[in-house]
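Project outcomes to date are best conveyed with an example. Our students and postdoctoral researchers have been running inverse folding experiments weekly, and each run begins with a structure described purely in tokens. The record below, which covers 447 residues, was selected by the lab manager from last quarter's runs and is presented without edits.
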């Protein structure tokens, strides 16, 4: 075991050394899809939607099969940007145009980590961590911004009479209102390629959180009506095209060996089933939070591999920090871990044994540890008005699933495994108590 750890340590060092031998740390391209479910793309089992670029991309990198996000949008982006559970940084499920909070300006984001090493940084797409000036990505380490600052359904179309027209922003200015959504994937992609070309000779961090495939769905004329899987398929196939354009550009500029590319999503599919899992967007069943994730770094990450270890979007910040040779923030607790050992060897020991599942109200509802997942207070009941009566009478007895034998979370095995229930309860209580003690506030809007 000790030898193995030593070996991994050496490999991790060599990974850094190789990067510095090229005289610059690796570029990072982070493609983040909205509401894409685990099996929405070919590499994760979809046979209806055509994703040739992602299929190829997966053969060049590593697939993660236990990669966790959160049930909905803003909380997931808080995790990704800070390396912390959203409960630690006090960002609830979804921010709206009338929300008076945002990610606290003192939080250290992925872009600020990249800035330590002089990276060119940009975000193209959906920010969703506060839209008031003090919360914009340009105040959180990003040199530039192009996109819609929140969800694409938060404008006047579809009818939301209380909301202002959907803004398309360039840096801190609204440049268009209610932009043609069928052009968003294409425009974001063109902006991303422009950024890569402009910065190809220096380290860069490109964060590309697409507005699609969030409702209202939209695809350009080249894709609309083309997919066998219907409109949702059209939007996914356009995202696949986008991935193809970006990887083509990286190859043309000979950047493959010096660029870590990460593809993942913020939460499960909306209003659709999420096979092979139970639940979907908004729930903490696996269908709501387990996401497709592919990471590629040619020559570093072994091609065509699969990693089944627990990982998630909270691990991106510590991992990127390590790989680019930056320093993690030392004055605060993070929840994510550096998973670069898994990037070198998918069979390396798990970096995190446990993962916590928070709901949109920032309550801890479940924990995974190894094969086991425990719902701490019974199964969640949907929190809408119709369900209120049901909620009051809900059974709060812990429910245990073995995710290895029962991926669809069907069979409660709590009674047969009281010692597992007790152990997971204790781990969850300890982790939760620490987060409650050390959690940090959201930013409050000045106006
Ligand atoms: Ca989402």
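After processing, the design step wrote out the following sequence:
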């Amino acid at each position: 075991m000790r030898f193995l750890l030593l070996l991994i340590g050496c490999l991790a060092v060599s990974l850094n050394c190789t990067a510095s031998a090229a005289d610059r740390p690796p570029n990072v391209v982070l493609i983040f899809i909205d509401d894409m479910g685990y099996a929405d793309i070919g590499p994760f089992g979809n046979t209806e939607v055509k994703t040739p670029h992602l299929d190829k991309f997966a053969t060049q990198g590593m697939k993660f099969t236990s990669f966790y996000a959160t049930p909905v949008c803003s909380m997931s982006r808080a995790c990704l940007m800070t390396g912390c559970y959203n409960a630690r940084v006090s960002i609830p499920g979804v921010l709206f145009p009338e929300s008076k909070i945002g990610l606290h300006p003192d939080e250290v984001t992925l872009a600020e980590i990249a800035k330590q090493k002089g990276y060119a940084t940009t975000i193209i797409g959906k920010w969703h961590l506060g839209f008031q000036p003090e919360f914009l990505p340009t105040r959180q380490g990003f040199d530039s911004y192009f996109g819609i600052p929140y969800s694409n359904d938060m404008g006047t179309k579809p009818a939301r009479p209380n909301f202002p027209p959907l803004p398309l922003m360039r840096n801190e200015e609204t440049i268009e209102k209610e932009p043609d959504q069928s052009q968003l994937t294409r425009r974001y992609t063109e902006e991303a390629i422009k950024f890569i070309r402009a910065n190809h000779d220096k380290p860069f961090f490109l964060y590309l959180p697409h507005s699609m495939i969030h409702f209202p769905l939209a695809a350009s004329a080249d894709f609309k009506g083309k997919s066998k899987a219907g409109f949702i398929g059209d939007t996914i196939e356009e995202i696949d095209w986008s991935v193809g354009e970006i990887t083509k550009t990286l190859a043309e500029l000979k950047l493959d060996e010096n660029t870590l590319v990460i593809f993942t999503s913020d939460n499960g599919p909306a209003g659709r089933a999420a096979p092979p899992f139970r639940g979907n967007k908004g729930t903490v069943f696996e269908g709501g939070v387990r996401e497709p994730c592919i990471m590629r770094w040619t020559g570093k990450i072994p091609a065509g591999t699969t990693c089944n270890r627990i990982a998630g979007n909270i691990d991106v910040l510590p991992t990127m920090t390590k790989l680019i040779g930056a320093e993690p923030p030392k004055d605060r607790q993070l929840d994510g871990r550096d998973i670069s050992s898994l990037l070198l060897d998918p069979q390396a020991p798990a970096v995190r044994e446990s993962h916590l599942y928070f709901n949109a109200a920032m309550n801890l509802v479940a924990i995974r540890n190894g094969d086991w997942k425990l719902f701490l207070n019974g199964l969640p009941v949907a929190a809408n008005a119709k369900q209120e009566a049901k909620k009051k009478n809900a059974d709060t007895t812990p429910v245990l699933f073995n995710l290895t034998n029962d991926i669809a979370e069907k069979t409660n095995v709590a009674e047969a495994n009281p010692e597992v229930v007790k152990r997971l309860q204790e781990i969850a209580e300890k982790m939760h108590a620490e987060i409650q003690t050390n959690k940090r506030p959201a930013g409050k809007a000045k106006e």
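Residues 230-252 form the longest helix (23 residues). The first strand starts at residue 27 and ends at 33. The training component of this project remains on track.
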